[in-house]
From TrEMBL, chain B:
It comes from the Bacteria. This is TRAP transporter large permease protein. Belongs to the TRAP transporter large permease family. Residues 11-432 form the TRAP C4-dicarboxylate transport system permease DctM subunit domain. It is a multi-pass membrane protein. GO terms for molecular function: transmembrane transporter activity. The complex comprises the extracytoplasmic solute receptor protein and the two transmembrane proteins.
Length: 309, 446, 164
């Protein structure tokens, strides 16, 4: 009989979301390889809730998942480095980061926890505001923002913004009702939550993007070990294809966001290298510092990431 | 075992456990665990705590106990009495006026509380004995309170709308506003039926002699005004909260917290309820109801997880989606399904299990998710007054244990038909639901 | 029906414990309300950041709900359909009620076990919530584990009381 692996993710299924597409592509590839392996995809949190997935996977309750790795940072604080301001900068550098010592360190934590990476993916994101374009650090002063990730919260608060914590599904309403002046999230979310209806200015990722998030496709080690060599090889090959597909799509996602926002009359700006360096300075005194203090090899992780060309 | 067979087993097992008297929350949880053990092994037990905690510890759900606390603060203070007395004096002289004013009181209380059983309890404690004293048939007295109470989840705030909003990632503020006008419309339908029922039974007037009535009026104009003045601050708080929700100041959990705080404060200040006794009563009532509801929500979520894990959910959703029928036939089938589910389960449990499955189907068939939330809510309101599980029926039984269940059911049935009529009206005129949210919040972003 | 001896003592002990945790639950519900009010004040009146309030409120409320549940069981507040057992009498009724109680008890014991295990993991591996406030997770799980355990014990007391 065929082996069926259960794959869970939080993104909408069958609607062209790039992370859903990666997993669906892997399902098709594995099926085509005809090695007695099938991937059963549960999209949109229809099996596990977003934050439950990591725990379920490392224990083998769930075979595979595609998730923002930072969601597991409560259990492995090292993972906060995968949603740290200014560690990635742009898609080309994200590619180089994938084969760096930094990612070796992160993947060691993943492996030790009982999982392995099948496909890497770094998503870019930006800032949007209905008050003032967010470029240099002083532009966030007095704005109430909702950031995706604690390290960003800390950096923005240090720069003088007010932070409001809420689930991402509330961003639209909160912007509409004035609870928020701006938000910071992935390019995909900006479009799918129709944030362009509520803002006057978008800071697109461009060449100097502060916001990047690592969202790999993972498999539980115990599920991996239960596969025969043929199946493992097929899955690895499928993961490779998914990764290549993602690289091709990643920049397109950012462009799509820029196009949609422009079509809706939103001003689109980029950060200059000077803006980027100024933010990096603030991050170093806030989020990086906290990370280095609280995580055993935190400083080493940051150094390793920044060392990448 | 294929999903269809296991689905049938799960439903039968649940019905058996409920029939022998297992509390619904525990029955849902036990079946879910049993199904997970059979599917994935006893090892699932190790993760059960994490799964349960993940479902109960959510900031969205925080609004539920707080809206219940807000209602309890009002119900345990003499506000209910004041509200009731004022309405009685305005309406009491019409034929059936007392029953109509009970429905009015239910509607107003519904705007102060997020829960239907709490609404029935708050107005019923006063209303049922009073109506029976004045010669109303038991069926009308019980029926109008049971049905009037169901408005608690349609007129905002609403516990079930919160659960729907979280399950489907729709805006809770918008859901609340969508329920307001249909809620008033349904209250109107209830009143019309009550008038007809009273006419059919020979009309009901205040039986006191004319002289006594005249004396009462004189004495009561003052009392009435005072009562109104005392109710007013509570109504202002609620108006303020609703305004905050759609006018751009707060999220539902924030509005609920502030509302609970203010109503608790008003109960203490306006009614001087600072002694331990009344505060105890308020907290006890709020705790009892919110614990009951939250436990059902958490176990229903685990039940839904088990159904998804066994691929039952996906199979059912696929079957509905593949029906290829006219969208209104589809809507009819969905309503029938909800009606049957509502016979056996409390509204929150049905929403937790059904809303995530139904929403994609609803959207694919080009129905508005906010409009559907109102249809779903009215449908589940019917479930509140139908056996075997009718939360409002249990409340009426508690207030007036001597009224035969048969009389309660016969008295409630016409109101259930009013709700069916309301669903039909809203299907023909969806603008009744959508007009106010569109006006206040702009077009829907779904 | 009042019971003597060890069993009676256990029932009375549980009744007292359930009432005590109900007070605690009420206090936590109120504390949850206060922290929301605090958040609204800080965010809208002071215009400052709100870091800990949403999580704190969530944890206070989940603790309140679980610590309140033994009292709700004791006072018959968990909704059940009793039409069938009520229609019976004598031994069949007793057996049916016993069966229903044992199912409920089994669920509560499973929940207690799962919650204690989760508590143990969170404590032993120093799990945190992974947010900007990032508190340790175990203090949020502990009341849930205690509440579920007391709920199981209260269930035993209800069965022993003979009115399950
Ligand atoms: Na209400
Ligand atoms: Na029912």
């Amino acid at each position: 009989a065929d082996t069926t692996l259960r794959v869970s993710h939080q993104f909408p299924g069958g609607k062209g979301d790039v992370r859903d597409e990666m997993v669906q592509l892997m399902a098709r590839e594995v099926k085509a390889a005809d090695v007695g392996l099938e991937l059963q995809v549960y999209p949109g949190q229809s099996l596990f809730k977003a934050k439950e997935q990591w725990g379920a996977m490392v224990r083998g309750r769930l075979d595979m998942t595609a998730l923002p790795l930072d969601y597991a940072s409560g259990r492995h604080p090292e993972f906060s480095a995968t949603l740290m301001p200014g560690l990635v900068r742009n898609h080309e550098r994200a590619q180089r980061l994938n084969d760096s010592e930094f990612m070796d360190m992160i993947k060691k934590v993943i492996n030790d926890a009982g999982a392995r990476v099948l496909a890497d993916a770094w998503l870019a994101g930006g800032f949007a505001s209905n008050k003032q374009c967010i470029t240099s650090p002083d532009t966030v002063q007095g704005q109430t923002l909702r950031a995706a990730g604690p390290a960003f919260d800390e950096m923005l608060a240090t720069a003088g913004a007010s932070i409001a914590s809420m689930p991402s599904s509330e961003i639209y309403t909160a912007m509409q009702t004035g609870v928020l002046d701006g938000a910071n999230t992935s390019s995909g979310s900006f479009v799918s939550y129709r944030i362009y209806e509520q803002v006057t200015c978008l800071t697109a990722p461009g060449a100097n993007a502060l916001w990047f998030m690592y969202e790999p496709v993972l498999i539980s080690e115990s599920s991996w070990n239960s596969l025969n060599e043929e199946q493992q090889a097929a899955l690895m090959a499928a993961g490779q294809k998914a990764e290549e597909y993602f690289v091709k799509e990643a920049a397109g996602l950012d462009q799509k966001m820029v196009d949609v926002f422009k079509e809706n009359g939103v001003e689109v700006v980029n950060m200059t290298p000077e803006n980027y360096e100024a933010w990096l300075k603030i991050a170093q005194d806030s989020a990086y510092k906290t990370f280095a203090e609280n995580v055993p090899n935190g400083q080493a992780l940051i150094d390793a990431a920044l060392a990448v060309e | 075992m294929d999903p269809v067979t296991s689905g049938i087993f799960v439903v039968i097992a649940l019905l058996i456990l409920m029939a022998i008297g297992t509390p619904i929350a525990f029955a849902l949880g036990a079946i879910a665990l049993g199904a997970l053990f059979l599917d994935r092994g006893v090892g699932e037990l190790v993760y059960f705590g994490e799964t349960f905690f993940g479902h109960i510890a959510s900031f969205g759900f925080v609004a539920i106990p707080m809206f219940i606390l807000m209602g309890a603060a009002v119900a345990s203070s003499p506000t209910g009495r004041d509200l009731y007395r004022s309405l009685d004096l305005w309406m009491g002289k019409l034929p059936g006026g007392l029953a109509i004013s009970n429905i009015g009181a239910c509607s107003i209380f519904a705007a102060l509380s997020g829960s239907s059983p709490a609404t029935s309890a708050a107005i019923g404690k006063l209303g049922i004995p009073e109506m029976r004293k004045r010669g109303y048939p038991d069926g009308v007295a019980a029926g109008c309170i049971a049905a009037g109470g169901t408005l608690g989840i349609l007129i905002p705030p609403s516990v079930t709308m919160i659960v729907y909003g979280i399950s489907t990632e729709t805006s809770i503020g918008r859901l609340f506003i969508a329920g307001a006008i249909p809620g008033l419309m349904l209250a109107g339908l209830f009143m019309v039926w009550t008038l007809i029922a009273c006419k059919m039974a020979g009309g009901y007037n205040t039986p006191s002699p004319v002289a006594e009535a005249a004396a009462q009026i004189k004495e009561n104009v003052e009392g009435n005004l005072k009562a109104l003045v005392r109710v007013l601050p509570f109504l202002l708080v609620v108006m303020g909260i609703l305004f905050a929700l759609y006018g751009g100041v707060a999220t539902p959990s924030e509005a609920a917290g502030v509302g609970a705080f203010l109503c608790l404060g008003l109960a203490i200040v306006v009614y001087r309820m600072w002694q331990a006794g009344p505060i105890n009563t308020i907290m006890r009532d709020a705790l009892r109801e919110s614990v009951m509801i939250m436990l059902i929500i958490a176990t229903a979520e685990i039940f839904a997880f088990a159904l998804s894990s066994l691929f039952i959910t996906q199979t059912v959703a696929g079957a509905i989606a593949d029906l290829e029928v006219n969208r209104w036939v589809l809507m009819g089938i969905i309503n029938l399904f909800l009606l049957v589910a509502g016979f056996f389960l409390p509204p929150v449990a049905v929403i937790v299990m059904a809303a995530p499955i139904l929403l994609p189907i609803i959207l694919a068939a080009n129905f508005d998710p906010y409009w559907f939330a109102v249809i779903l809510t009215i449908n589940l309101e019917i479930g509140l007054i139908t056996p075997p599980v009718g939360l409002n029926l249990f409340i009426i039984k508690g207030i007036a244990p001597d009224i035969a269940l048969r009389d309660i059911l016969l008295g409630s049935l016409p109101y259930a038909l009013c709700m069916v009529l309301a669903i039909i009206i809203l299907c023909v005129f969806p603008e009744i639901v959508l007009w106010l949210p569109d006006l206040l919040m702009g077009p829907s972003t779904y | 029906m009042s019971q003597r001896g060890l069993i009676g003592g256990f029932i009375r002990l549980m009744d007292t414990a359930s009432i005590a945790t109900a007070y605690l639950a009420g206090a936590l519900l109120f504390i949850g309300v206060l922290s929301v009010v605090h958040m609204v004040f800080v965010r809208y009146v002071m215009g400052e950041s709100t870091i800990w309030q949403t999580e704190f409120t969530t944890f206070a409320i989940s603790a309140s709900m679980l610590l309140g549940t033994p009292y709700v069981l004791k006072t018959g507040g968990h909704v059940a359909v009793t039409v069938l057992p009520d229609a019976l009498s004598g031994l069949p009724k007793f057996l049916m009620q016993l069966a229903a109680s044992l199912v409920g008890l089994a669920f509560c014991i499973a929940l207690s076990f799962g919650s204690w295990y989760y508590f143990y993991e969170a404590y032993a591996f120093e799990w945190t919530s992974g947010t900007v406030w990032n508190p340790p997770l175990w203090p949020a799980i502990l009341p849930v584990a205690i509440g579920a355990t007391l709920l199981s014990l209260q269930y035993v007391a209800e069965i022993l009381r003979g009115e399950p």
